[in-house]
Amino acid sequence: MIKLLFVCMGNICRSPSAEAIMKKIVSENNLDDKIFCDSAGTLGYHAGDQPDSRMIAHAKKRNVFLNHAARKITNEDLIEFDHILVMDDDNFSNVMLLNGTESDKSKIKKLADYCVKLDEDEVPDPYYGGAEGFEKVLDILEDACSGLLEDLKIKHNLK
What is the model's pLDDT at position 44? Predict the structure, then answer.
């Protein structure tokens, strides 16, 4: 089982959306028994909260359903997960501060690096923006998750 962890700051907008989008894509490719997805935040102040209601509404329009209770990333996550996919440079820096080996830290990548159609360096935080910010984030996540799955298919010989 390949284990993916998506990480943003609060785990209520970007990372639970990435988790849900990836789960949908994995299911559409009949790979549920091969790929496990979860998400977490670098900060724990939303721990236990459901995703942001605005993100839930925007994702639902795309038949993506967010069902996740926010949690903070742990040192154990570095060991447990095979790929840790962060949304931006701040998330990357914060996850790199966790206690882990060099091998553990080599699992940390920016999700936007897997974009195929869009030229994005980061997945921006839509929290303080309007509707267009949430839509842009979902566009980036859909592109990046599709690219990530193609990369995983090649690296792990998935059919």
Answer: 86
